Amino acid sequence: MKLLFPLSILFSTLIYGQKENNSEDVLRFYRTEIELLALKTGDTLVDVGSEYGLINAMYASLIPNIYQILIDIDKSKLNKKILKYSYKAIKKEYNKEFDFNYDFEISQKDAIPLVSSSYSKILCRKSFHEFSEQSKMVKEMHRILRESGEVIVIDVLPNRKGLRDNNCNMLYLMPDQIIKVFSENNFILKSQTQEVMNLMDKGVFSVITFVKSNVSPPAIPL
After folding, report:
1. Is residue 221 part of a domain?
2. In this structure, what DSSP letter does residue 45 have?
3. Which of 57, 60, 69, 146 is nearest to 104 (CA)?
4. pLDDT tens, 117-137?
5. Domain limits at 160?
6. What is the arrangement of strands in the sheet containing 101-106, beginning at the earlier edge strand?
7. Residue pair 103/74 in contact by the 8 Å Cβ criterion
8. Cα dist. 37→97, 121, 171, 196, 208 in Å?
9. Does residue 11 surpass a pLDDT of 80?
10. What's phi and psi for 39, nearest 5 deg?
11. Which uninterrupted H or E stretch holds 28?
């Protein structure tokens, strides 16, 4: 495996992003994000589109005894070597001992390789707009969630429709577009708010939480 740039640079970019940020800025941001996710000790979090697992290591450093299952389609970004580095990087930066309890799976673009009805919380952090098979992936999230399980989507809030991600060239979605996909696949909107980032991605992000429903939406009259 060959990375495009050294892991040390990757860490600095992902965590700090803007050069004016410092360690305390970063900790405050991720503590606030953890509150948005309602993560607590003992939780299991499935992160779909986790990439390098660096943010997951940050979560683990701030919440004791959480278990995370990391999912991504790109094995060059999600593998044992990178996850080991992510843990060591956070540990070194904050001079802190903590347990990074995780498993990881490489998925397909339209399937999540996890057991049905087994999880209570799924995160899609800045990844939902990248899915080429969004409806199929939402169906998969519904499949693996327990009854009343939740999906939290954190994604770019574009200032207009039609804007694309420069990295993957996929369209950013407006909140109503995200809500529509989930509503059509047996999810109920629980909450909707915003998060302001000043790290790697600087801007405003939607934070939308959905709850699994086993009631099919009413048929549209012909």
Report:
1. no
2. E
3. 69
4. 999 999 999 999 999 999 999
5. 7-212
6. 101-106, 67-72, 44-48, 119-125, 145-156, 202-212, 187-198
7. no
8. 23, 9, 25, 15, 10
9. no
10. -80, 140
11. helix 23-37
Q: Average pLDDT for residues 43-51, to the nearest whole number?
A: 97
Q: In whole angstroms, give the CA distance from residue 184 to residue 135.
A: 8
Q: pLDDT tens digits for 140-169?
A: 999 999 999 999 999 999 999 999 999 899
Joined tokens for residue 171? 């369209």
* Six-digit token string for 25: 């800025």
CATH number at residue 17: 3.40.50.150
Q: Count of residues for the chain? A: 222
pLDDT confidence band for 21 (50 / 70 / 90): low
> What's the domain count of the chain?
1
**If you write DSSP's letter for every residue of 66-105 in order, what string do you get?**
-EEEEEES-TTTSSHHHHHHHHHHHHHHHT-----EEEEE
* Mean per-residue pLDDT over the chain, rounded: 88
Q: Could you tell me which residue, 13 or 160, shows the higher pLDDT?
A: 160
Q: Is the residue at 32 inside a domain?
A: yes
Q: Which amino acid is at 199?
A: L
Assess if residue 142 is contained within a domain.
yes
Whether residue 59 is contained in a domain is answered as yes
The first and second tokens of residue 37, run together, are: 């996710």
pLDDT band at 197 (very low <50, low <70, confident <90, very high): confident
Residues 6+ apart with CB under 8 A from 220: none
The pTM of the whole model exceeds 0.85:
yes
Amino acid code (one letter) for 152 = I
